[in-house]
């Protein structure tokens, strides 16, 4: 799938829509989900134009991959859920029920999140 620069997260990265920011560096942005599914629901995204984790894994630069993974504990720490635990998931494509076509990891926690898939 070709990257659509009109997607909502691209607009957030460009500063056209202000997020409830949690963490930012030159390659990564994390912000609160607008419609939280658990007490804590954050989204962690690369700033580069990657549709999903498949494309990211195939074509992102190593420093972008490192930055995204390294951001995970920083975001968990900022949210106060590093010790209690959380779920990190990413939806990909039609069967994964991905709605926004820009790679994002959902970080869910602040309470028990239940079984992985019902
Ligand atoms: P997915 O179904 O994995 O693509 O998830 C997309 C997520 O983006 C959903 O959890 C939405 O609630 C969230 N979302 C959509 N628009 C915004 C926005 N403007 N700010 C924060 N989160 C958003």
Account of the 3D structure:
By secondary structure, the protein is an alpha+beta fold. The chain has one domain (8-109): HIT-like (HIT family, subunit A). Helix content is 26%, strand content 21%. It contains three helices and five strands, in the order H-E-E-E-H-H-E-E. The protein has helices at residues 8-13, 53-59, 62-79, and strands spanning 21-24, 28-32, 40-46, 86-89, 105-109. Strands 1-2-3-5-4 form a five-stranded antiparallel beta sheet, with helices on one face. The longest helix has 18 residues, at 62-79. It is globular and about 35 Å long. The termini are far apart.
State the assembly state of the protein chains.
single chain
Question: What is the straight-line distance between the termini?
Answer: 29 Å
Q: State the strand order across the main sheet.
A: 1-2-3-5-4
CATH T-level topology? HIT family, subunit A
The H-and-E topology, N to C, reads as HEEEHHEE
Structural domain tally: 1
| Helix proportion | 25-40%
Ligand names: adenosine monophosphate
User: Which spans have pLDDT < 50 for at least 5 consecutive residues?
Assistant: none
The helix count comes to: 3
CATH architecture descriptor:
2-Layer Sandwich
Summed over residues and divided by their number, the pLDDT gives a mean of 97
């Amino acid at each position: 799938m070709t990257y659509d620069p009109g997607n909502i997260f691209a607009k957030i990265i460009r500063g056209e829509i202000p997020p409830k920011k949690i963490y930012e560096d030159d390659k990564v942005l994390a912000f609160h989900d607008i419609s939280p599914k658990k007490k804590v629901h954050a989204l962690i995204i690369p700033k580069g134009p990657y549709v999903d984790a498949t494309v990211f894994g195939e074509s992102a630069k190593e420093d972008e991959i490192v930055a995204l993974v390294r951001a995970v504990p920083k975001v968990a720490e900022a949210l106060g859920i590093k010790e209690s635990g959380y779920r990190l998931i990413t939806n990909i494509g039609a069967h994964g029920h991905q709605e926004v076509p820009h790679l994002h990891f959902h970080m869910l926690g602040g309470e028990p999140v239940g079984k992985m898939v019902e």
